Sequence to fold (364 residues):
Amino acid sequence: MTLWWQQPVKPLDESARAVARLRQDNLTKPPGSLGRLEQLAVELAAMQYQAKPRIDQPCISIFAGDHGVVAEGVSAFPQEVTQQMLANFVNGGAAISVLAHAAGARLEVIDTGTLAQAPLPGVIWAKAGDGTANFTQSPAMSEAQLAHCLDLGRDTVQRALSNGCDLFIGGEMGIGNTTSAAALACALLGLPGRELAGPGTGLDAGGVNHKAEVIDRGLALHGFAISPAMRFASSPHPTALAHAALRCLGGFEIAALAGAYLACAQLGLPVLVDGFITTAAALAACRMNPGVRDWLLFAHASAEPGHVRLLAALDAEPLLRLEMRLGEGSGAATALPLLRLACELHGGMATFAEAGVSAGTRHG
Fold:
C-alpha cells in the first residue's frame, strides 16, 4: 500500500523559471550583481508558478512536544519549560511572536504531545501522547503515533493554504529535542553521537559528551549503529530507514514538521526551513520522499555545531549566518525579509528596454 507521503510531489514550473531568469538578465543592473537575491527570485518563480513571485501571506506553525529522553539528563532546562513557552508564544512574549508580528505573518502553535493535561488557551490541541518514550529504552513512538504526527503536519499545511499562505515556516519547541534531532540525523547519516551532539539549551562540554553517549545508546538499541549505505542496500524500500529512524528516535513535533514538509512539496507550497531541529526533520522528509528537496529554502546556519553537517547532506546554502540557535522558527522569520526583498527587486525593477537604458555586453 502506498501511503500519502509517498505520493509524487508537485513539479516545479520550469517555464516560469525560464521567464524569471530572462527577466533577471534584462533588469537594469549587471547580470548577477544582486547575487543570491536573483537566484531566490528565480527559484520562487518556479515554486509559485508565476514569473513575478510574491510573499504576501507567510504562515508560521510551531509544533511542540515533550521528550522521554530528558530523563537521561540531556537538557540544561527542566521539562516544564515546554508548556511554559507555549503560553509565552500565544501571549506574544517569545522571540518568534515578536518576529511574526513584525513580518505580518500568521502564527499558530500546535501541541503535538507535551505533558500538558488540558488544552492551553490559544494552542491547537492535537496530541499524539504525553511526550515520547525514552528512546534509549524503547522506540520513541508507536507506528500509530508517527502516522498521527505525519497527518497532523499535512493538516497544518492544508489549513495554511486555506488561509491564503504563500510561504510556510515550521517552528518547534520541546525540551530535549536537540537530542532527538541529533539522534535522528545520526541514524540517517551513519554518524556517531559525537559528530552531531551540541550544547542545545546550554550544556557544557561534559554535558555534550553525555548527550553523545545517550544518542549512541539509542542508535545501538534500534540497530542504527551501522552505515546507512548498508541499511539502505538491505532495505526493500528506500524510505524504510527514514521512517524507522523517525519512529524510533524522533519527537512528535519533529515528525509533524516532516509531515508538513512532505505535504508542502505535494501541494506546491514553498518552505523556508529554520535551524538544526527543523533541518533534521527536513532531512527525514527528503529521505522519505526525495522530491521534497525542490521545495525547500534554508534560512540560516545555526550555531548548533551539527547543523553544518545536515546542510551539507541536503546540499543547502543558508541565507544567513548570525550564530542563532534559538529554534522556534526564529531564524526563518529573520530571513523572511530577504525573500520578500528578492521578490520586490525582481518584480519592481525596470528592464533596460523599459527604462530606456543601454544594455551592456557580456564580453570585452
Observations:
- The longest helix spans residues 143-162.
- The longest strand covers residues 58-65.
- The chain has a mean pLDDT of 94.
- The two ends are 60 Å apart (CA to CA).
